[in-house]
Design a protein that fits this description.
Elements lengths: L7 E4 L2 E4 L17 E5 L6 E5 L10 H4 L3 E4 L5 E5 L1
Antiparallel strand pairs: 1-2, 3-4, 4-5, 5-6
Length: 82
């Protein structure tokens, strides 16, 4: 039997553990390095805005329009602001 407290970390006089909640939130072909990302505090929403300083492959007229996309921390699109 393994030690049940092996994945807990001591911080001061208390113990905490880190639990992974989500995996593979965005598509594999989605290039985050081409976006400006801002996260809300306490694991809230994530806002993405295309970085205009970087070159992008043409993906049609819809992709050419600038927008701010707001996602939940689980990667679900909440709102697109055009």
């Amino acid at each position: 039997m393994s030690n049940p407290t092996a994945d807990w970390d001591r911080v001061g006089d208390r113990f905490y553990r880190k639990v992974q909640l989500y995996t593979a939130i965005f598509d594999e072909d989605f290039e985050l390095e081409n976006y400006v990302l801002v996260g809300a505090p306490y694991g809230g929403a994530i806002a993405l805005y295309r970085d205009e300083q970087k070159l992008h492959a043409y993906r049609g007229s819809q992709a050419a329009k600038s927008s701010i996309d707001i996602f939940s921390c689980a990667g679900k699109l909440i709102r697109r602001i055009n």
